[in-house]
Design goal:
The strands form three sheets. The protein has a seven-stranded mixed β-sheet. The chain has a six-stranded mixed β-sheet with strand order 2-15-3-4-5-6. A two-stranded antiparallel ribbon has the order 11-12. With 340 residues, it is α/β, with parallel strands linked by helices. It is globular. The protein has a single domain, classed as Metallo-dependent phosphatases (Purple Acid Phosphatase, chain A, domain 2), CATH 3.60.21.10.
Length: 340
């Protein structure tokens, strides 16, 4: 059986949680604003839109960290110029397009038997409207991956504000190639106004919500929170509402900064991104900056806190400047396993 045929046959069934938005035939389709009001709570939507408008461009203050280099566009040009003068800008661009597939086996004691062997393709920090050549390479690499479903941990757009439609056009192209059902969350580069468009592509956004994956009588809970780094619109309590305490549950968070609350809420696995693994690293992979208020050991690759395991993607795309050094971009395939 081909990979694509097996994906269709084995894809888990979505049930429970908060039901996906349904397309209902009507003489006049609702506007995106109306759909947003129907999709999110009034407070969540007001909070997100207000902060995007008032503080979305701030370089200093707000969020979990004081300094937000991704919002300081003038320094981006300085970095590019410096790398060109050093003669390494082109090499950095080639590094940023050298996507690798990383396989990460995860043993979860509470994992139901029917989900043993489940493969999750984890993409993060796509920044799809940055480099067209990167997008082409990403589409090629995705087709080589064998997985049962896809999760995306935020940052669809390259910049933190401005026109988001080019990123959506690129996402539409990518979506057709992604394996299985696709679940995603928003990051600090994303506007909540993207929500209707993203869900029209068949991507289920988890906005402080959860869904239930079923195989036979077994259930696996997949939750997602809104951006915990800059906008701080995450609500783990709401995302985990009605998830049984003894159930196996996975949380998608844009940044590993949510590790403390996630672990003490009973999640078994946290999948995150945001840090890019540092992106510009010294030899040996030492990050010059991680842009996250959490232990450095949680900012790239697998980690553990209390009884919870975690994985922070080094990022699929690149931000600030489309270059990488000593920190390759990655597509991660997490294979869930039960203890032997």
């Amino acid at each position: 059986m081909s990979i694509q045929a097996r994906r269709l046959a084995e894809s888990p069934v979505l049930t429970g949680g908060v039901p996906p938005v349904q397309q209902v035939a009507a003489p006049l389709p609702p506007s995106d604003d109306e759909r947003l009001r129907a999709r999110l709570s009034e407070l969540h939507l007001r909070q997100r839109l207000s902060m995007e408008s008032a503080h979305g461009k701030a370089v200093f203050g707000y969020g979990r960290t004081f300094f937000h280099i991704e919002n300081w566009y003038s320094i981006h040009a300085v970095i590019r110029g410096t790398l060109r003068l050093m003669g390494i800008y082109g090499r950095g661009q080639r590094n940023a397009r050298a996507l690798k597939v990383v396989h990460n086996p995860v043993t979860l004691p509470a994992l139901p038997a029917a989900f043993s062997g489940l493969r999750l393709l984890h993409l993060s920090d796509l920044h799809l409207d940055g480099d067209p050549e990167y997008l082409h390479t990403l589409c090629e690499r995705v087709q080589e991956v064998d997985a049962d479903l896809t999760v995306i941990t935020g940052d669809f757009r390259y910049r933190t504000h401005g026109d988001w439609r080019p990123a959506m056009a690129a996402l539409e192209r990518l979506r057709r190639l992604l394996p299985g059902e696709v679940y995603a969350i928003l990051g600090n580069h994303d506007t909540v106004r993207m929500v209707p468009t993203i869900e029209d592509f068949g991507i289920r956004l988890l906005l402080n919500e959860h869904v239930v994956l079923e195989r036979g009588a077994d259930r696996l809970y997949l939750a997602g929170i809104d951006d915990p780094h800059y906008f701080c619109t995450d609500n783990i309590e709401r995302a985990a509402e009605n998830v049984p305490l003894d159930a196996c549950a996975i949380l998608l968070a844009h940044s590993p900064e949510a590790y403390w609350q996630a672990a003490h809420s009973g999640f078994d696995l946290l999948l995150a991104g945001h840090t890019h693994g540092g992106q510009l690293c010294l030899p040996g992979g030492f990050a010059l900056m991680t842009n996250a208020d959490c232990p450095r050991s949680f900012c790239r690759g697998p980690f553990r806190y209390c009884d919870m395991q975690g994985y922070t993607s080094a990022g699929t795309g690149s931000s600030i400047v489309s270059v990488r050094f000593n920190c390759p971009p990655e597509l991660v395939v997490h294979e869930l396993r039960r203890p032997q």
